[in-house]
Write a structure and sequence with these properties.
- The protein is of the alpha/beta class.
- It contains 11 helices and 14 strands.
- The chain has a 7-stranded parallel sheet with strand order 3-2-1-4-6-7-12, with helices on both faces.
- Helix 5 links the parallel strand 6 and strand 7.
- Helix 3 runs parallel beside helix 4, helix 4 packs parallel to helix 5 and helix 8 packs across helix 9.
- It is globular, with a radius of gyration of 21 Å.
Length: 340
């Protein structure tokens, strides 16, 4: 198998698909600040234009392409712009996603299909388009921004959870194919907990109140930290927010408990006290919302100690060594006491 060695961010060209708001926008800003040349793509042209202007005003380099990731030709055009402008692609970050809040029986086949086209096929298109460019560059990274619902499904999110589960199955198979062929391309799955972005407000909603994610909320920078780390370090999985890891463990170890808890508490956790607005959401048309932060800033945690340790492996190793040393010293001390 080929050893994967990724370039420093300051030497990379990075495409962020789904970059006009929320996680994608924060990630693009952070990548440019780290010295990467950035190509941002989304449906919201005004949001993209203001983002590129913000990056350039801060001394960074960026261009944008208007793109619906469900359209293969538009995704190919993004890659062509990246190569024409900056000469190559080193990392492709797939962020674009949308959601429908509705009971399973109230979610139409068309809505299921649309979420699969955007959330699943959008990443399929992006990674298939990116791979030849990454090979020509001598390797690179594919970064999938998924969801905690990649591993545990919330009620009222059957279509969204299905699309995210599909992404995880696809990238698992892709990662193994690339390893088998010796292709030096890393594939990372990032699984965020609830993140304070406009995502919830802008989705399609069939409840009588505005939807939200199940708390705790984290700041978008927690996910951006994961993306920047994955672009420069070949890593398989990252959980953005310790709550996402806890969700994974609960589903894996005690699925019946997960069923019981989410049946009782899941729907109340997804409801706000505010009347529903804009029920159609951004399923087919952009909302025009270019914010990074969503409507839950007062509840959002600014950082995740769990994620910080995951993206700082040297510190994690030191802590493990220190913990092992402390346990060893305690055992030696206990033995000495018994022998005295």
């Amino acid at each position: 198998m080929a050893r994967i060695k990724l370039e420093p961010l300051a030497q990379q060209v990075v495409v962020v698909a789904g970059g006009s708001s929320g996680i994608g926008r924060e990630t693009a800003i952070r990548l440019a600040a780290a010295g990467a040349e950035v190509v941002v793509a989304a449906r919201n042209e005004n949001g993209l234009a203001t983002l590129v202007r913000q990056i350039e005003d801060a001394g960074g380099k960026a261009v944008y392409a208007v793109c619906d990731v469900s359209d293969r030709a538009q995704v190919e055009a993004v890659a062509e712009l990246a190569v024409a402008t900056f000469g190559r692609i080193n990392t492709w970050v797939a962020v674009a996603a949308t959601v429908v809040y509705a009971d399973f029986e109230e979610t139409t086949p068309e809505e299921f299909r649309r979420l699969m086209e955007v959330n699943f096929m959008g990443q399929v298109h992006g990674f298939q388009v990116a791979l030849p460019h990454l090979r020509r560059a001598g390797g690179g990274a594919l970064v999938s921004v998924g969801s905690g619902e990649t591993v545990i499904s919330m009620p009222l999110n059957s279509a969204y959870a299905a699309s995210k589960h599909a992404v995880e199955g696809m990238i698992d198979a892709l990662r193994r194919e690339l390893k088998a062929s010796g292709t030096p391309v890393s594939v990372t799955s990032i699984k965020p907990a609830a993140i304070n972005t406009p995502f919830f407000t802008n989705g399609r909603n069939k409840m009588d109140v505005k939807p939200k994610g199940a708390p705790p909320f984290y700041d978008p920078s927690v996910v951006a930290d994961c993306v920047l780390f994955a672009a420069a370090h070949p890593v398989r999985d990252l959980y953005a927010g310790g709550a996402a890891k806890l969700m994974k463990l609960t589903q894996h170890l005690t699925p019946r408990l997960a069923d019981a808890c989410l049946a009782k508490f899941g729907i109340p956790l997804e409801r706000t006290d505010e009347p529903a607005e804009n029920a159609d959401g951004n399923l087919y048309e952009t909302s025009g919302d270019a914010r990074v932060q969503g409507d839950f800033s007062k509840q959002a945690l600014p950082a995740s100690p769990y994620t910080w340790l995951a993206t700082h492996p040297a510190v994690r190793r030191l802590l493990l060594v220190g913990a092992a040393g402390a346990v060893g010293a305690r055992l030696v001390g206990a033995r000495a006491v018994r022998q005295s």
